[in-house]
């Protein structure tokens, strides 16, 4: 059983967020300004030091311009079948 914070699914989520931000042409500081938060929050989300809840995922998707369902498909594919909460 994998630990949630460093599970394959969590790592995939973090990488997908980084990839989406870069594809959209945002730096961490630019995204933070757009969201009205500190750059350090974006860094913690992307590094996996802080989890992303579903509402935050929707907000990030809107700000960056990605489909949250496509990102969830990436996470679902990476999550181990025996993963527990």
The helix fraction, in percent, is 55-70%
CATH superfamily: lambda repressor-like DNA-binding domains
- How many whole angstroms does the radius of gyration measure? 13 Å
The CATH architecture designation is Orthogonal Bundle
Task: Provide the low-confidence segments as ranges.
Answer: none
Strand fraction: under 5%
Number of structurally distinct domains: 1
CATH-defined topology: 434 Repressor (Amino-terminal Domain)
Shape label: globular
- Average pLDDT value? 94
**Major beta-sheet overview:** none
Tell me how many strands there are.
Answer: 0
Distance between the termini: 9 Å
Query: Based on helices, strands and strand pairing, what is the structural class?
Result: mainly alpha
Number of helices: 5
Protein name: Helix-turn-helix transcriptional regulator
GO molecular function: DNA binding
Pfam families: HTH_31
InterPro entries: Cro/C1-type_HTH, Lambda_DNA-bd_dom_sf
